[in-house]
Amino acid sequence: MACLLLRVLNILIMKSAPGGTIGINDLPQFASKVIIGMRNQLTVSSNTVDNGITRRAVCRLMLWVPFALSLVPATASAHLLNMTEIHLDATQPDNVNLDIDIDLGQSLMTAEEYWSATSSNLTEQAEALRPIASEIKSGLQVKVNGIVVSIELDSWQLTASSLQAIKNPLSPQMAQLFFKLKSPIPADASVELLINDQLEVPWPALLRLDHAASLLPTSRLLTEKERSSRPIFLGEKAESIEGEGFSTNAVLAVQALAPGLTWIALGFQHIIPRGLDHIVFVLGLFFLSTGVRQLILQVSCFTLAHSLTLGLATFGIVSVPASIVEPLIAASIVCIALDNLHSEKIARWRLAMVTLFGLLHGLGFASVLSDLDLPPQDFLSSLLLFNLGVEVGQLTVLAIAFLAVGWMHRWAQYAERVARPATITIAGIGAYWFIKRVSVI
Amino acid sequence: MNKNSAGFTNIKTIVSVAFVAVCVAVFDVAFSALKEPPLTFPIDGRASGTFPSEWIHGSKSAMDNTDPAVQVHAYNDHTFILRENKAINYEGVFMYLFFGNGVAMLIDQGSTSSPALFPLREVVDKIIREWEEQHQQSDIELIVANSHLHGDHYAAWNQFVDRPNTIMVGLTHEEMMAFWGIDNYPQEIVTYDLGGRELVVTGTPGHQGSELAIYDGWTDLLYTGDMFYRGRLYLEDWDAWVASIRKLRRIADRNPVVHLVNNHIEMTAEPGIDYPIGTTWQPNEPPMQMTLEMLDQAVEATYEVNSPGIYIYDDFLIYNQIPWYTTTDL
Are B50 and B72 in contact (CB under 8 A)? Predict the structure, then answer.
């Protein structure tokens, strides 16, 4: 014990150096071994004694001694560190994998057995794991539609840094065991995983279930007292997810396909459904245009303009407060609608007006982008993809408008019965937004 | 069209536009009145709150500890901070219960599963019952969420799975992000409406790859979970942590943050010195809440640290890519 205390003091002095840092390579030589040794009451030899013991170090030691006495119950309760993780992957119903991350040396094997297995060849490992696999197969049950499905150990990964590390509950040395299910899990099945009383694993055990019916996984926590995941209904889960967050699922699908494309999805979302004022503005353009060509011309001017200000604002070159931009966006809706009501065809200056308003709307998008925290390393590409998503959103609005009423534009009464009432509604909404936004300032 | 006719058309148009505007206004006002919540959580100004002068911090003998299993502290009427008794688990984690209209959100569920040892559900239900009585609300919903996915923060998650009127966010990265509406983790910053209480939420990986930080605009508290607290900051991904800390600074630049709150206390009151890992007794603890100056020090650290190792600062230790059980406590 005296040697240990001297060693402790030695470390204290090293730590007390101003701006002291301890490199990773130094750690095994003192800090971790001494502390772990002390907690486990292992013998730790000390070969060096530093004469420069500082007052701070002594004080610290005095502070530490009572703590050391309280460590035994603490280490005994440190089971969360080596908790078990179970991953049931049923994304391919006919090829279902069950992966288990488990601290074998602290549970189903002795530390010595596990250490020996890690340093053995594959054949010897298979032999050592045979009784373990058998124990897991009889103790861990996967029920599909209420029927137990058998599992088979397929492969494994055993790792450990040392026998002492395996023995120490504070340094979990996890093994990975990869099982395969012998039966498929249909997309609409109910699945339950349970661990019976005969099998003791480090608790709690976190279950993650991936399945074909949903892009989102399902999680359950099994504890020593609650050893069943309870039935998980894959079909129901899929339906509820679809109902709750189609948009989220779509984005997750895009993200899984190509992470960069997420920005397109986000841009799209900022038109549909979040960008109501931009939707109304684009509809304002739609109701004056008598042909697709003129409409595309206007939308292109609008797009180029808002891309420009969006870019400038995002780079910090232009900055206009939302309290100014937002009322002006509302005013732009009123202007475009009033112009519709007084024009039979598109005047040249209308394009200039649409371009000007596009600049304004770009500033509005910029405030949204500032909340997205674009990654510095992919700043430009993220910005361009976001912008592309905005354009796709606008074109979708136009496509829906065309499908709803656009096909009637050759009807003699179209202007009077469709375009005019719609435009008056747009103007009214814009006027209300303008008054509301101005009154908020 | 003659002048009179054109004038009449203009007047008709103006009246029509005004009529639509008035209709939209009436609809908007009526709709707002219908959903007018009984409680308001304005983000202008600041809802004040208090911290205890000291937290219950364990005892020399864990076996003889008589403190409650969960310490409950009302920061203010609608914000509760809970701490697991260190004698039950040395992590002594802090958990948070935020209330909005018709809803409460529990962030983290401690380090002990057993309801007999750690009756978190019972404690939370009691707080909710009393809150409902005090604020004339009933059957409010409970959302069970997590700051990140480490077992010492969700061990008692199961105590809530059969609770009526409860949303279990889930214990996978995908479930967490889908709940908050974060499509692009960790960059995206989203606003979550907790019954009229605006929470700004964003990804802050570095300690763990699903970690979130939450800014509560009503109280101006910035919750930083396990990625920044008075203790050993175990970092599995240094670059991610650098980005997260700098992002927290940007959030604090944009918002009037008053305190940084978090999940653990592992530092002693003496600068640069931590309690030993696993201790169940921490006398003379410093406060749990942290200051913006400490955040600034962390930002400075992001420019100073350039390799794996342990780095000692007054109010925290950076364990950059160091196995968590290695320690300099001695």
Answer: no
